[in-house]
Amino acid sequence: MVKIAILGGSGYTAVELLKILLRHPQAEVVAVTSRQDDTPLVAELHPVLTGRIALRCEPFNPDGLAARGVQCAFGCLPHGVSMTTLPALLERGVRVIDLSADYRLRDPNVYAQWYGESHEDLAHLAQAVYGLPEIYGDEVATAPLVANPGCYPQTAILGLAPLAAGRSIDLKSIIVDSKSGISGAGRTPKLTTHFPECNENFAAYAVGNHRHTPEIEQALADLAGEAVEVIFTPHLVPMDRGIFSTIYVTPHRPMTQAQLTELYREYYRNAPFVRVVDHLPATKHTTGTNFLDIAVRVVRDRVLVLACEDNLIRGASGVAVQNFNRMYGFDERTGLFG
Ligand SMILES: NC(=O)c1ccc[n+]([C@@H]2O[C@H](COP(=O)([O-])OP(=O)(O)OC[C@H]3O[C@@H](n4cnc5c(N)ncnc54)[C@H](OP(=O)(O)O)[C@@H]3O)[C@@H](O)[C@H]2O)c1
Q1: Predicted structure pTM score
Q2: Mutation to probe ligand 1, out of 77, 157, 179 (largest number of atoms < 8 A from CB)
Q3: Domains of the chain
Q4: Measuring CA to CA, how many Å separate 242 from each of 23, 140, 272, 316?
Q5: Strand order through the sheet with 129-130
Q6: What's the mean pLDDT when you consider all of the chain?
Q7: Is the Cβ atom of 81 under 6 angstroms away from ligand 1?
């Protein structure tokens, strides 16, 4: 059994992690940290866990966690907070899976440009592995610190990986048009996610400057071996959860539908959580699962990729457990299938 701590216990990704880890045969959650007053029971913060966990939340205390033998911590904290919180655990030999964006971008200058603040933990940034298991899985296995990938980027990167790796598309004219449910913004209330603001409403946001743009470009450039430019436009849709991305690319040479489908099937042959489907995917087909569904179509000599996932599972907590499984040598599917 691997002893686990979850940090930022009151949030959405924390509760999804708890749901998965409490049924994981090799995981033992020994601590849930939170800033909440009066150390509430975890099940008081998340009534869905009533009868499943007896732990109380506790303040973050890295010495105490290390003394109790915590081996792996999941950081479910906002970006900016992670990079000032997690070093204390890493320095005590605890392996960390960080769900925030703090360790995803290798270049601290790119982080400063897109996140508007300097990176404060360059030492651990240099050790971090980008935790998209289908692409960086071998490095994840030995990493002290895994930077769990963003929710939108996974649909874009896995949606384009077979084409980027084969350099068979124009890498400077990629368009990623994405829609997300409101839980993508987390449990902390904000005006833009207040019910009357977003119910019966549909709107784009962060046009041309969403922070997931450099993350998508970094991974696609790794695959292609050259710089990539993406126009990424996110939208908020009035549903609880789910992300759907429609991606438009121009192939260098015309492809048939059969060639395109075969390329994707072959690329993801050994990826249990990426389903290349014939039908048009829909967010509800992936709700509550760690699957990322992809359909591909040739339309007027362009290629369209349609990719969707549950933002809280595949987009965050499910892929975090997939990474955990790889880090500790368990079957990648443990706790996530069934
Ligand atoms: N939501 C998604 O779909 C999604 C997908 C991929 C990645 N992520 C990333 O995962 C991380 C967690 O997201 P989430 O959706 O779980 O957010 P959330 O629901 O807002 O939860 C974050 C938790 O972090 C703690 N926290 C907030 N501010 C803090 C501060 N200043 N200092 C210390 N702790 C603080 C709070 O827990 P306590 O009050 O218990 O301390 C809060 O509940 C974020 O970095 C987010 O970008 C989210």
Answers
A1: 0.97
A2: 77
A3: 2-127 (3.40.50.720), 151-311 (3.30.360.10)
A4: 23, 25, 19, 11
A5: 57-58, 27-33, 2-7, 72-75, 95-98, 145-147, 129-130
A6: 97
A7: yes
pLDDT tens profile 273-283: 999 999 999 99
Residues near 147 by beta carbon (within 8 Å), at least 6 away in sequence: 98, 101, 102, 103, 104, 128, 129, 130, 131
Half-sphere exposure of 266 (CA within 13 A, CB side): 10
Higher pLDDT, 169 or 338: 169
DSSP H or E stretch at residue 149: none
Distance CA 134, CA 142 (A): 15
> Does the beta carbon of 151 sit less than 6 angstroms from any atom of ligand 1?
yes
The tokens for 177 are 């048009």
pLDDT at 338 over 70: no
- Centroid of ligand 1 to alpha carbon of 7 (angstroms): 9
pLDDT at 265: 98
Task: Establish whether residue 281 lines the binding site of ligand 1, counting it when its CB lies within 6 angstroms of any ligand atom.
Answer: no
Would you call 151 a catalytic residue per the annotation?
A: yes
Residue type, 266: E
CA 65/CA 90 separation, integer angstroms: 12
pLDDT per position as a tens digit, 186-229? 998 899 899 999 999 999 999 999 999 999 999 999 999 999 99
